[in-house]
Design brief:
single chain; 255 residues; alpha+beta; four-stranded antiparallel β-sheet; 6 strands; 28% helix; binds zinc ion
Length: 255
Amino acid sequence: MLLDRFYNKYIIKGTLIADTPIHIGSGEESFDPVQVDNSVIRDSNGNPYIPGSSLKGVLRSYLETLLISGVDERFNACLIVNEPCLDNDDVKSIKETCKSSQSNQNVDRLVAEEIYKKMCTVCRIFGNQYFASKLVVNDCTLKEDKAYVERRDGVGIDRDTGTAADKKKYTFEQLAAGAKFDFCMTVDNLEPEYEELLKLMINVLKSGELRVGGKTSVGLGCIRLTDVSAYKIEHKNLKQYLLEGLKDEMRWQYV
Ligand SMILES: [Zn+2]
Protein backbone atom coordinates (compact mmCIF):
# COMPACT_ATOMS: atom_id res chain seq x y z
CA MET A 1 0.00 0.00 0.00
CA LEU A 2 1.36 3.37 -0.99
CA LEU A 3 1.00 6.42 1.21
CA ASP A 4 -0.91 8.66 -1.19
CA ARG A 5 -4.36 7.80 0.16
CA PHE A 6 -5.75 6.71 3.50
CA TYR A 7 -6.22 3.00 4.19
CA ASN A 8 -5.42 2.63 7.87
CA LYS A 9 -3.43 4.02 10.77
CA TYR A 10 -2.17 2.18 13.85
CA ILE A 11 -1.37 4.16 16.97
CA ILE A 12 0.56 2.53 19.80
CA LYS A 13 0.90 4.43 23.05
CA GLY A 14 2.49 3.55 26.34
CA THR A 15 5.14 4.26 28.93
CA LEU A 16 8.75 3.38 28.30
CA ILE A 17 10.77 2.51 31.39
CA ALA A 18 14.56 2.47 31.59
CA ASP A 19 15.35 -0.86 33.29
CA THR A 20 19.05 0.01 33.35
CA PRO A 21 20.79 3.36 32.95
CA ILE A 22 20.72 4.73 29.41
CA HIS A 23 23.39 6.58 27.52
CA ILE A 24 22.25 8.29 24.36
CA GLY A 25 25.02 10.67 23.48
CA SER A 26 24.36 14.19 22.29
CA GLY A 27 27.09 13.76 19.73
CA GLU A 28 28.46 17.13 20.75
CA GLU A 29 32.06 17.19 21.74
CA SER A 30 32.77 19.56 24.55
CA PHE A 31 35.98 21.54 24.69
CA ASP A 32 35.31 22.73 28.22
CA PRO A 33 37.67 20.76 30.53
CA VAL A 34 35.11 20.77 33.36
CA GLN A 35 32.41 19.33 31.14
CA VAL A 36 31.95 15.63 30.69
CA ASP A 37 33.20 14.16 27.44
CA ASN A 38 30.04 12.31 26.63
CA SER A 39 26.88 14.10 27.67
CA VAL A 40 23.41 12.68 27.15
CA ILE A 41 21.12 14.17 24.55
CA ARG A 42 18.71 16.80 25.92
CA ASP A 43 15.68 18.62 24.58
CA SER A 44 15.30 22.40 24.45
CA ASN A 45 14.26 22.40 28.13
CA GLY A 46 17.44 20.63 29.14
CA ASN A 47 15.67 17.33 29.85
CA PRO A 48 17.10 14.05 28.61
CA TYR A 49 14.92 12.22 26.08
CA ILE A 50 15.01 9.21 23.79
CA PRO A 51 15.01 10.23 20.13
CA GLY A 52 12.35 8.40 18.13
CA SER A 53 14.94 7.73 15.44
CA SER A 54 17.02 5.68 17.92
CA LEU A 55 14.05 3.47 18.75
CA LYS A 56 13.09 3.14 15.12
CA GLY A 57 16.62 2.04 14.29
CA VAL A 58 16.53 -0.59 17.02
CA LEU A 59 13.16 -1.91 15.82
CA ARG A 60 14.38 -2.02 12.24
CA SER A 61 17.46 -4.09 13.11
CA TYR A 62 15.32 -6.39 15.24
CA LEU A 63 12.96 -7.05 12.33
CA GLU A 64 15.87 -7.40 9.86
CA THR A 65 17.57 -10.02 11.99
CA LEU A 66 14.32 -11.89 12.46
CA LEU A 67 13.38 -11.92 8.78
CA ILE A 68 16.88 -12.63 7.44
CA SER A 69 16.95 -15.70 9.64
CA GLY A 70 13.88 -16.89 7.71
CA VAL A 71 11.36 -16.94 10.53
CA ASP A 72 8.49 -16.60 8.03
CA GLU A 73 8.99 -17.15 4.31
CA ARG A 74 6.25 -14.71 3.33
CA PHE A 75 8.48 -11.88 4.53
CA ASN A 76 11.99 -10.85 3.53
CA ALA A 77 14.68 -8.35 4.42
CA CYS A 78 17.59 -6.91 2.46
CA LEU A 79 20.99 -5.76 3.66
CA ILE A 80 20.28 -2.08 3.24
CA VAL A 81 23.94 -1.01 2.99
CA ASN A 82 25.61 -3.89 1.15
CA GLU A 83 22.80 -5.53 -0.77
CA PRO A 84 19.76 -3.26 -0.90
CA CYS A 85 16.58 -4.69 -2.41
CA LEU A 86 16.54 -1.79 -4.84
CA ASP A 87 19.24 0.45 -6.34
CA ASN A 88 19.37 3.37 -8.77
CA ASP A 89 19.73 1.08 -11.78
CA ASP A 90 16.58 -0.82 -10.83
CA VAL A 91 14.68 2.43 -10.41
CA LYS A 92 15.95 3.68 -13.77
CA SER A 93 14.82 0.60 -15.60
CA ILE A 94 11.44 0.61 -13.84
CA LYS A 95 10.92 4.20 -14.99
CA GLU A 96 11.82 3.34 -18.57
CA THR A 97 9.53 0.33 -18.65
CA CYS A 98 6.64 2.32 -17.20
CA LYS A 99 7.07 5.20 -19.63
CA SER A 100 6.99 2.89 -22.61
CA SER A 101 3.98 0.96 -21.33
CA GLN A 102 0.65 1.61 -23.02
CA SER A 103 -1.21 1.82 -19.74
CA ASN A 104 -3.61 4.71 -19.23
CA GLN A 105 -2.60 4.91 -15.62
CA ASN A 106 -0.72 7.84 -14.21
CA VAL A 107 2.95 7.05 -14.92
CA ASP A 108 4.25 8.38 -11.59
CA ARG A 109 1.87 6.18 -9.65
CA LEU A 110 2.75 3.19 -11.81
CA VAL A 111 6.45 3.80 -11.15
CA ALA A 112 5.77 4.06 -7.41
CA GLU A 113 3.79 0.80 -7.48
CA GLU A 114 6.51 -1.06 -9.35
CA ILE A 115 9.23 0.23 -7.04
CA TYR A 116 7.15 -0.77 -4.03
CA LYS A 117 6.68 -4.28 -5.43
CA LYS A 118 10.44 -4.76 -5.61
CA MET A 119 11.08 -3.62 -2.06
CA CYS A 120 11.66 -6.04 0.79
CA THR A 121 9.29 -6.21 3.76
CA VAL A 122 11.57 -4.23 6.06
CA CYS A 123 12.04 -1.36 3.56
CA ARG A 124 8.29 -1.26 2.94
CA ILE A 125 7.67 -0.67 6.63
CA PHE A 126 10.74 1.38 7.58
CA GLY A 127 11.39 3.14 4.27
CA ASN A 128 14.52 3.55 2.18
CA GLN A 129 15.92 6.25 -0.07
CA TYR A 130 13.01 5.89 -2.49
CA PHE A 131 10.10 5.55 -0.10
CA ALA A 132 9.08 7.26 3.12
CA SER A 133 8.72 5.17 6.25
CA LYS A 134 5.27 3.94 7.26
CA LEU A 135 6.40 3.60 10.84
CA VAL A 136 7.13 6.69 12.89
CA VAL A 137 8.26 6.81 16.51
CA ASN A 138 7.91 10.16 18.24
CA ASP A 139 10.70 11.45 20.44
CA CYS A 140 10.04 10.03 23.90
CA THR A 141 10.01 12.80 26.47
CA LEU A 142 10.25 12.36 30.21
CA LYS A 143 7.03 11.68 32.09
CA GLU A 144 8.28 13.33 35.26
CA ASP A 145 9.67 16.82 35.57
CA LYS A 146 13.14 15.66 36.25
CA ALA A 147 15.38 12.69 35.83
CA TYR A 148 18.61 11.73 37.46
CA VAL A 149 21.68 12.04 35.33
CA GLU A 150 24.75 10.33 36.70
CA ARG A 151 28.37 10.74 35.77
CA ARG A 152 30.43 7.67 35.27
CA ASP A 153 34.02 6.97 34.49
CA GLY A 154 34.75 4.93 31.45
CA VAL A 155 38.01 3.44 30.38
CA GLY A 156 39.02 3.29 26.77
CA ILE A 157 40.52 0.07 25.57
CA ASP A 158 43.75 0.22 23.62
CA ARG A 159 42.89 -1.46 20.33
CA ASP A 160 46.43 -2.67 19.74
CA THR A 161 47.14 -4.30 23.07
CA GLY A 162 43.60 -4.92 24.26
CA THR A 163 44.43 -3.43 27.64
CA ALA A 164 42.91 -0.49 29.40
CA ALA A 165 45.14 2.42 28.60
CA ASP A 166 45.66 4.99 31.34
CA LYS A 167 45.40 7.93 29.02
CA LYS A 168 42.06 6.87 27.73
CA LYS A 169 40.02 7.46 30.84
CA TYR A 170 36.96 9.56 30.24
CA THR A 171 33.72 10.58 31.88
CA PHE A 172 30.28 10.02 30.47
CA GLU A 173 26.76 10.82 31.53
CA GLN A 174 24.01 8.30 31.89
CA LEU A 175 20.36 8.63 32.67
CA ALA A 176 19.58 6.69 35.85
CA ALA A 177 17.51 3.51 35.71
CA GLY A 178 13.81 3.97 36.45
CA ALA A 179 13.28 6.97 34.21
CA LYS A 180 9.89 6.93 32.49
CA PHE A 181 9.04 8.30 29.08
CA ASP A 182 5.92 8.82 26.99
CA PHE A 183 5.92 6.50 24.01
CA CYS A 184 3.92 6.97 20.81
CA MET A 185 4.42 5.08 17.56
CA THR A 186 2.25 5.26 14.45
CA VAL A 187 2.13 3.10 11.34
CA ASP A 188 0.28 4.24 8.23
CA ASN A 189 -1.23 2.04 5.53
CA LEU A 190 0.06 -1.24 6.82
CA GLU A 191 -0.74 -4.33 4.73
CA PRO A 192 -3.03 -6.73 6.64
CA GLU A 193 -0.40 -9.49 6.50
CA TYR A 194 2.15 -7.19 8.15
CA GLU A 195 -0.04 -6.75 11.24
CA GLU A 196 1.72 -9.78 12.68
CA LEU A 197 5.08 -8.03 12.36
CA LEU A 198 3.74 -5.00 14.18
CA LYS A 199 2.55 -7.32 16.97
CA LEU A 200 6.04 -8.83 17.15
CA MET A 201 7.54 -5.37 17.50
CA ILE A 202 5.14 -4.38 20.27
CA ASN A 203 5.87 -7.63 22.07
CA VAL A 204 9.64 -7.23 21.89
CA LEU A 205 9.29 -3.67 23.20
CA LYS A 206 7.27 -5.08 26.12
CA SER A 207 9.75 -7.88 26.76
CA GLY A 208 12.53 -5.49 27.79
CA GLU A 209 15.03 -7.21 25.50
CA LEU A 210 15.74 -4.19 23.33
CA ARG A 211 18.51 -1.75 24.09
CA VAL A 212 18.92 1.83 22.91
CA GLY A 213 21.84 4.18 22.80
CA GLY A 214 25.50 3.54 23.44
CA LYS A 215 27.43 1.27 25.79
CA THR A 216 24.88 -1.50 25.45
CA SER A 217 27.72 -4.02 25.61
CA VAL A 218 28.28 -3.02 29.24
CA GLY A 219 24.61 -3.46 30.06
CA LEU A 220 23.21 -0.01 29.44
CA GLY A 221 20.11 0.96 27.48
CA CYS A 222 17.50 -1.66 28.46
CA ILE A 223 14.05 -0.26 27.85
CA ARG A 224 10.64 -1.81 28.46
CA LEU A 225 7.23 -0.72 27.19
CA THR A 226 4.37 -0.82 29.70
CA ASP A 227 0.74 0.38 29.89
CA VAL A 228 0.30 -0.25 26.19
CA SER A 229 -2.83 0.89 24.41
CA ALA A 230 -3.16 0.20 20.70
CA TYR A 231 -5.64 1.71 18.25
CA LYS A 232 -6.54 1.07 14.66
CA ILE A 233 -8.12 3.78 12.54
CA GLU A 234 -9.86 2.71 9.35
CA HIS A 235 -12.25 4.30 6.87
CA LYS A 236 -15.22 3.56 9.08
CA ASN A 237 -13.90 5.48 12.08
CA LEU A 238 -11.58 7.99 10.38
CA LYS A 239 -14.01 10.89 10.58
CA GLN A 240 -14.77 10.25 14.23
CA TYR A 241 -11.06 10.05 15.00
CA LEU A 242 -10.37 13.34 13.23
CA LEU A 243 -13.21 15.07 15.04
CA GLU A 244 -12.99 13.53 18.50
CA GLY A 245 -9.57 11.92 18.81
CA LEU A 246 -8.87 8.43 20.10
CA LYS A 247 -11.81 6.53 21.62
CA ASP A 248 -12.06 3.18 23.37
CA GLU A 249 -14.01 1.68 20.48
CA MET A 250 -11.00 2.28 18.21
CA ARG A 251 -8.86 -0.07 20.29
CA TRP A 252 -6.87 -2.65 18.37
CA GLN A 253 -6.52 -6.09 19.93
CA TYR A 254 -2.91 -6.90 19.23
CA VAL A 255 -2.57 -9.92 21.49
ZN1 LIG B 1 15.04 -3.63 1.50
